[in-house]
Request: fold
Amino acid sequence: MRIVLGVGGGIAAYKVASLLRLFTEAGHHVTVIPTEAATRFVGTATWEALSGNPVSNSVFDDVHQVNHVRLGHEADLVVIAPATADLLAKAATGQAGDLLTNTLLMAHGPVLFAPAMHTEMWQHAATQANVETLRSRGAAVLEPATGRLTGSDSGPGRLPEPEVIFDAAMALVQGETDYQLPLAGRTVTISAGGTREPLDPVRFLGNRSSGKQGVALAVAARNAGATVRLLAAHMEVPAPAGVEVVPVETALQLREAALAAAAGSDVVIMSAAVADFRPAEVSDTKIKKRDDSADPVITLVRNPDILHELVELRNSAGHGKRQQLIVGFAAETGDSDGDVLAYGEAKLERKGCDLLVVNHVGADKVFGQDTNSVVILSRSGAEPQEAAGTKTEVSAAIISRIGFELNHVSPRA
Reply:
C-alpha cells in the first residue's frame, strides 16, 4: 500500500517516527511530507532514513514529476500526524500553500487526521468547527488522547500513541469509515503483577505473577483510546509507554491506590494477583535460623477483598446503578469439589463485579507464560466468552468485550 504520511509542526512529531516504522515494517511504501515547521522538530534526514524515500515539502522540487498532483493521486491512504490546529484549519479551508496541503486537495483515498495540540486550542470553537467540516467531507479525525502535554500542562490534546493511529489507519483502509476507538475519552485503571507481603526486611510472601497479562491489558486499553492508569505491583516486564504508573507492593497499598483511582475511572480492571493473606506480624529485623531455637510459626490474617469493596463503593455512589464497569480476574485451580469454571461462576456471584475473567493456573500455566486461555463471565446473563492465544491477543479480546459492554449494555438498577 502507498501511504503519504504528513507531519505537522508540533512537538509530538518525534512520536511519528515510531508510526512510520510501524507502516514500513508492515510492508507499506511511505512517502513522508513534513511541513516546514515540522522540520524544526525532526529533520528530513530522519524521515528519509526511516522511510527509504526522498523527503520534500516544496512544490518546486522534482517539478517534472508534478508531485503536488501525483502524490495525492497515487496514495492509497493519507495520514496526518500530528495534525496541528494550523493544519486542520488549512485542510478545512482548502488552502494549498505547500506540498502537503496540495496533496490533501488531490487525495482520492481515505484521509486520517491524528490531532495534537494544547487543550485550549483543541477545544476552541474554530478548531472544533474545522474538525466537523473535515468529518462532514469524509475525512477521519481521531480524538486526541488525554495526558501530559508540553511543560506541566495536562488534558485532552495529546497525540494518540503510534499503535492507536496505525490501527485506526488500517481500519480506515479496510472500509471502516465510521471507525471509532472503543475506549476513546474513557479512563481505565488496571492493576497488574503480584503483591508481596513482608515477613521481615528480607523475606516476603508472594506469588508467581509476572505482570505480563496486566501490561498487555494496559497496552490494549491505551490502543483503544483510553487514558490508562496502571497500578503496578511486582512485575517482571516493564510498564508500557503512554500510561500513568502507580507503584505498589502490598495488598493494603494496592487497596489504597485502587480506591483512590476508581473515583475517576470509567473502567477498573483488577488483574493483579493479590495475596489473600498477610503475616499478622512483620519483624523489624531478619528472622534468624538458630539451631537452639524452635521453628518460627507464622500467623496469617486475611487481606481486604479489594474487588468486592470497589463494587460496593461503586454501587453506593451510584444509588444501585452501574456508573462504571468493574472487571475481576479469577486465577483458579479445580479440585474434587468443583472445576475451574464452577469456582469462577461462584466468585462472580460473590464479588458482584460486571465481568470476571477466569483462567486455570498452575506451576506451568499462565503465570510467567506468554500465552493464556480464559473464559469471560458476565453478570448481564450473556453466554461465557472464550479467548485464547498470546496474552496480547487475549487482552485485545477482553478490551473489545469491555468496549461492547460500555457502549451497548444499559446500566442495571
About this structure: The chain has 13 helices and 19 strands. The longest strand covers residues 325-332.
